Amino acid sequence: MFKFISLASAAFLCSTALTFAADLTDNAVPPVAFETPAFTWTGAYIGISGGAGWLDGSTTKFGRYHDKQDFDGSVFGGFVGYNWQFSNGIVVGVEGDVEYNSNDEKFFGYRTFGTDWQGSVRGRVGYAFDRLMVFGTAGWTMANGHIEYPCVDENTTFSGWTAGAGIDYAVTDKVFLRGEYRYSDFGSKEIVRGMNVDFDQSIVKVGLAVKF
């Protein structure tokens, strides 16, 4: 009889222990899953860029004589900006740049005209496909034009508008690459007495930037 009671007690204790263990397993807190934050284009950035430029210039001398010239050269400079990305993938921003522009050529056979620096302030609108963003940009631009010939060395600042499009691609969370095309119309201005210069330029360039 005593043996029977002992076996029954042991069986009851084992059953209770198994039930308690099962309850602990059922009520266990699942492990916490940590999600990787989605990439965003929001933030400030600064970068460098360089490429090729094709400038078309025309000159009118005293309203009677005309000359046209193509100015092929290179550009190199830096840019800085800020982006805001919305939940629907739209990205808006503002950007400014300053570049050195090398493109001297001769007008009327002996007068050398060219630009040495240019800059712009623009708005940008784009759409983000995760780390790839396509964008359009437009705004105000300016350039310093200079003309040289015997006993004359003059320069003046031209201003106009610029517009273009490009692609930014983030290779890391902090670094992105850029490819861009821009057209700039710098308007017309009298650079020396009796001589008006009118020029516009197309630029293709690539860039590298750091995002903060």
UniProtKB/TrEMBL annotation:
Pfam family, one: OMP_b-brl
Keywords: Cell outer membrane, Membrane, Signal
GO cellular component, one term: cell outer membrane
Protein name: Outer membrane beta-barrel protein
Outer membrane protein beta-barrel domain location: 38-212
SUPFAM superfamilies: OMPA-like
Family membership noted in the UniProt record: Belongs to the Omp25/RopB family.
Signal sequence, renumbered to the chain: 1-21
InterPro entries in UniProt: Beta-barrel_OMP (IPR027385), OMP-like (IPR051692), OMP/PagP_B-barrel (IPR011250)
Places the protein is found: Cell outer membrane
Record has Membrane as a keyword: yes
Species this chain originates from: Endobacterium cereale
Chief localisation class: membrane
